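User: Can you model how iron/sulfur cluster sits in this protein?
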Amino acid sequence: MPGKTVKVDRNITLTFWEKLYIPEIIRGLYITTKHFLPNFVSVVRAYILNKPEERKIMTIYYPEEKPNIPEAYRGRPVLVRGEDGKEKCVACGLCEVACPPHCISIVGAIRKDGTRYPETYVLDGSRCIFCGLCEEACPEEAIVMSHNYENLTELDRGLMIYDKDALLVPEAKLKERLEFIRKRAYSKCNY
Ligand code: SF4
Ligand code: SF4
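Assistant: Here's the modeled complex, given as structure tokens:
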């Protein structure tokens, strides 16, 4: 189940009380305390009764428990491997041009049947800012922002330069994201 997508209104005009600042600090402390106390009491109670399933805690025990990722979440960009086993990318280069930090490099080639494909496709994950512009620019649904939030960093930047084989993910595993980008394309919503 995907998590909830929240649209944030960035054109906020502050009221008189918000401009005073201190009432907002008090409100923030009240909200924090409102969540903290029931959580704390329920954890202590569950511990005393030895019933961990009864805790009403809002956080999760990661990595044993995994969070629900919102459908609009932009994780590591990956290339889509179509059902025929081939990459869907046609090496048009639009993602390369759209990428603000220039972390994509493509060398295109032509197959014997005349179709285009990327002979090499390299994405430097250490420069990626997860903006999703590559996904938006792609006319083939060939590069998408996956929900992978776990394998984003390495101790060596060199290990974050992904080649085509490292980037390709079967279409079946990206179904949820592909459905989301189709829905987004036909709606006026700005995710
Ligand atoms: S998400 Fe943004 S920064 Fe990362 S590869 Fe795509 S266009 Fe480039
Ligand atoms: S925009 Fe899509 S089809 Fe074009 S090169 Fe990038 S991934 Fe391939």
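A couple of observations from the model: The pocket of iron/sulfur cluster (ligand 1) is lined by residues 77, 98-101, 103-104, 123, 128-134 (CB under 6 Å). The chain is about 30% helix and 15% strand.
User: Helpful, thanks.
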